[in-house]
Amino acid sequence: MCGIVGYIGKRDALGILMDGLHRLEYRGYDSAGVAVVDGDLTVTRASGKIAELEKKVSQITHHGTTGIAHTRWATHGPPVEKNAHPHRDCSGRLAIVHNGIIENHAELRRDLQAKGHVISSETDSEILAHLIENEMKTQGDLSTALRFAVRRVRGTYGVAVVSMDEPGTICVARLGSPIVIGVGDGEMFVASDASAIMRYTTRVIYLDDGEMATLEAGNYRIRSLDNLPVAKEITEIEWSEEDVQKNGQPHFMLKEMLEQSEVLRNTMRGRLDADNGTAILGGLKDASERLRELDRITIVACGSAYYAGLVGKYMLEEYAGISVTVELASEFRYRKPVLTNTTAVIAVSQSGETADTLAAVKEAKMKGILTLGIVNTVGSTIARETDFGVYNHAGPEIGVASTKAFISQCVVFALLTLFLGRQRQLSLVMGKRIVEELKRLPELVDRILDGRELVRDVAEKYSDVTSMIFLGRKYCSPIAYEGALKLKEITYIHAEGYAAGEMKHGPIALVCPELPSVVLCPKDSVYEKTKSNIEELRARGGKIIAVTTEENDEVHEFAEDVIEIPKTLEMLTPILAVIPLQFFSYYTSVKKGIDPDKPRNLAKSVTVE
Ligand code: M6R
Questions:
Q1: Which helix (H) or strand (E) holds 397?
Q2: Would residue 608 count as lying in a domain?
Q3: Is 489 in the pocket of ligand 1 (CB under 6 A)?
Q4: How far is the CA of 553 from the centre of ligand 1 (A)?
Q5: CB 16 within 8 A of CB 63
Q6: CA-angle at 180, arms to 174 and 176, nearest 5°
Q7: At 329, which CATH number?
Q8: What is the pLDDT of residues 354-378, one digit of tens each?
Q9: Would the CB of 605 count as within 6 Å of ligand 1?
Q10: Would you call 604 a catalytic residue per the annotation?
Q11: Which residue's alpha carbon is nearest to atom 16 within ligand 1?
């Protein structure tokens, strides 16, 4: 959601902070601000995108070597300047930036106001500045004051604080919202996401929940919130600077869609065992015997990752013979799931920081259930919290709309299906066949990427519609949901995704000539059924955009527009079928003049409930 960046060292902090903010803008872009300590404490804030802050910052003449900055995704209070971070205390001597939600903010606000504090924003975050100010009176130093202040908070935080009284220090603390420390040469960095600082250092330390750190130019100390010293390892970031650039494309989303064949190669690299018709998943090696005992899997995820989970369910049930339920993580955590010791919970998350998914993992762990992660971001919280896992190796995904991560998640499920299937009922012959088809996938993806101009023409033809339906059956029903989600997210066109067989149970009442339907109708085991559903739509004047497999000539008889994808195994078809839908939304968004990388009201990583 929001993004934090901080710097302490020998260089001009402002330039580094602004650069970090630009890299974090995909996390939230309602408003932004920066605080620099230079004998004084200068706070500059602006509503809107980072460019607005940039204009103000260009007027600043005095610079310091310690500072913190923030880009906001509003939760409490509208995205106006007074609600932008950094927030100051009453004295104006300290400033904080905060990610997360302070749940007891109203109660704390009343208490602070009764003590005479003047709270000038509508945010929950500003409360922290005043709590620290209070504690400074008795505790004396910033780190202790922060430790005592966060003890009063119920909720989640990733927080960084600077003070004029300790100009050579940044203090940070974490509970439920990521904080990563960058270790430089005589300088230290802090961020909510390593992409903000990887240009300066690739040596990072991920704070865990309940930890805090005091950073000085050439030094850091990490302690628990109980004030015990904590020894942490320094991790080397694998992603390169290039990975987080647009590489000449107008948008991250386009760049990421165009990377998809390479992404699949990376996801599968070294993991296909053609001789044994299985997958080699290093992250599951030590869990192998426990996995053999499983008779049930519960997949927990949100948004697109949830739809990838639905694709996984179809694969695992058909080829591994394991019963699978897929749950929205936000629901799982608040009901009373019945889980046995032969159940595994699989959390799927691109960012590895989604609050609801993380909470579902914690819930499962608390019940003693085996947890696995399918996570893209190395070192992220979900990756570290789960017992075992498989990384996607899709590279950083910056575009708010998930594309390459989604197809990579589906491929990881295919790998898991091979692995668990070969432990069970999957024959060597079928295992080998799946491996062969997986190997072909990148080349088939390339063919779809090459045909994207045709999808652009179709998208532009329909860009003025106000509503759309997406339909698919079996393996393609999750792709219908995903297609509708993509369209909503980046074009603001109302879209509904349905399993095609559901239409006649209600939604067909919507169908009329003004409501086109995108129907996924590859020549698979349910093709004839989907064709009947198409006829039902046509009988009511509905226009059809068909996504079908190559050499299906008859589809032209009942579809206004046809988009072809190459043939592959039915279980792998969703991985190909989703790509034209991604391009469809992307080109519609561009045609409507919307920035697909920064759609309104959204943020890349949803670290609040
Ligand atoms: O980082 P995660 O995969 O856990 O994120 C889950 C969802 O927030 C995410 O997929 C979201 O729905 C995307 N914006 C979809 O394009």
A1: none
A2: no
A3: yes
A4: 36
A5: no
A6: 30
A7: 3.40.50.10490
A8: 999 999 999 999 999 999 999 998 8
A9: yes
A10: yes
A11: 401
